[in-house]
Design goal:
The protein is about 55% helix and about 15% strand.
Length: about 425
């Protein structure tokens, strides 16, 4: 009996480790599948079909090998336990038979004991199978628990309070520094005040820290040092829900869900009715193209909005932000990948969206920059210049150098290329 318990324990421990490996290989397989399906155009364009098939085959082979290790342990454990039970029964026969011959046991006592011992193998085999299944489940559960036990990067203390209303939208950065890795700071001692209703454009080289600055406002990250304030309230002491309800985000890569157009717009406010959705779409210059679709507002957009053009997706995102009616608006290069015609539609919608809102724009194109009340030049995690387009050009600093290198002239725009400050 002790030997059986030892075998079951060792096998269970091994099954637990193997199950963890199996879960990891399954994750690898699904990752390859997801990347292949979402990047199918790139794969075809670069004729990498064979490479992706081989990559999937290797991941699938790894999953198969891990699964076979589990099957082998299962295949061994039950016969081993049954064999040990047979040896145990043979030992009982030998020892009991000798005791009967020597007169230490009666035949009746021996047969009763033998009958009881004969009932043990079946329960032991079932126990081993159940224990193996339990350890498989435990191995999978440990992987889930390891994710659930992760500490959030931004925690909400119990003593946080809602952001006081009405919200005006003033934003203050007080000595804010930030680093994704301790040895590589991204922002250095940022001092910044954005007044209610002001439109501020952030420009600068790629990797200068523009996106990091705006990501600190909705507390996607926590500053390494310093404080961020909204209407004079330290946002680390404000509930995330009340803070983010006052913030609208229009990213460069528009995120649309695989539901209808109306449901994607309603994402800005779940309480909105159809009249509100249509009004937001009209303000975003999206209503006309929506009405030309087969099911109009009930038209499914497909995964990531695949059935819509880039400009159409962006206008849906703007309609969503309008419906949310935030006091603070963040745009992360919202027009950088659009053609001139789509850009004109989006810019007109953005002009409406900016009204009476505190807006921070990570700017890429001159047309967007010129809409700002103030331009901040970010370089290596610091604000190096501040002013409007004319003032910054007159200074002859980084902004002027970037502009002279990157702005396309008006003739290029007339030819359909638009004006851009690439890398800004």
């Amino acid at each position: 009996m002790p030997l059986v318990v030892w075998v079951v324990g060792k096998a269970g421990s091994k099954l637990r480790r193997i199950t963890g490996l199996i879960q990891s290989t399954i994750a690898d397989v699904t990752t390859v599948l997801q990347e292949t399906l979402s990047g199918i155009k790139v794969i075809k364009a670069f004729t990498m079909e064979a490479h992706e098939m081989e990559r999937f085959r290797r991941r699938n082979e790894g999953n198969f090998q891990a699964s076979m290790r589990g099957v082998k342990v299962h295949a061994v454990i039950t016969p081993v336990i049954e064999l040990l039970s047979v040896f145990g029964l043979a030992g009982v026969l030998w020892f009991g038979g000798r005791r009967v011959i020597e007169g230490g046991l009666t035949v009746g006592e021996f047969m009763a004991f033998l009958g009881a011992a004969g009932t043990l193998p079946t329960p032991l085999a079932r126990l081993s199978a159940s224990y193996g299944g339990l350890n498989q489940a435990l191995g999978a559960a440990l992987r889930v628990f390891s994710l659930l036990d992760q500490t959030p990067e931004v925690e909400e203390p119990n003593d946080t309070i809602p952001l006081p209303e009405p919200v005006e939208g003033r934003i203050d950065f007080d000595g804010v520094s930030f680093a994704y890795r301790p040895s590589e700071p991204v922002l250095h001692d940022i001092e910044l005040t954005v007044m209610p209703g002001e439109v501020v454009a952030l420009v600068g080289p790629s990797g200068s820290g523009k996106t990091t600055i705006v990501n600190l406002i909705p507390r996607f990250y926590q500053p390494t040092s310093g404080k961020v304030y909204v209407d004079g309230c330290d946002i680390s002491k404000i509930t995330l829900r009340s803070l983010r309800r006052q913030i609208g985000l229009v990213p460069q890569e528009t995120v649309l869900f695989s539901v209808s157009i109306s449901e994607n717009i309603r994402y800005g406010s779940q309480r909105a009715g159809m009249k509100d959705i249509v009004k937001a779409a009209k303000l975003a210059n999206a209503h006309d193209f929506i009405m030309q679709l087969p099911l109009q507002y009930d038209t499914p957009v497909g995964e990531k909005g695949v059935t819509l053009s880039g400009g159409e997706r962006q206008r849906i995102a703007i309609a969503r932000a309008i419906l949310r009616d935030p006091r603070i608006l963040i745009l992360d290069e919202a027009t950088s990948s659009l053609d001139p015609e789509s850009e004109a539609e989006v810019q007109e919608a953005l002009t409406r969206l900016f009204r009476n809102r505190t807006t921070l724009v990570i700017a890429h194109r001159l047309s967007t920059i010129q809409m700002a009340d103030r331009i901040l030049v970010i370089d290596r995690g610091r604000i190096t210049e501040s002013g409007n387009h004319r003032e910054l050009m007159a200074k002859g600093g980084l902004y002027a150098r970037l502009a002279s290198l990157r702005f396309r002239d008006d003739s290029s725009e007339d030819q359909g290329q638009g004006q851009a400050l690439t890398g800004v």
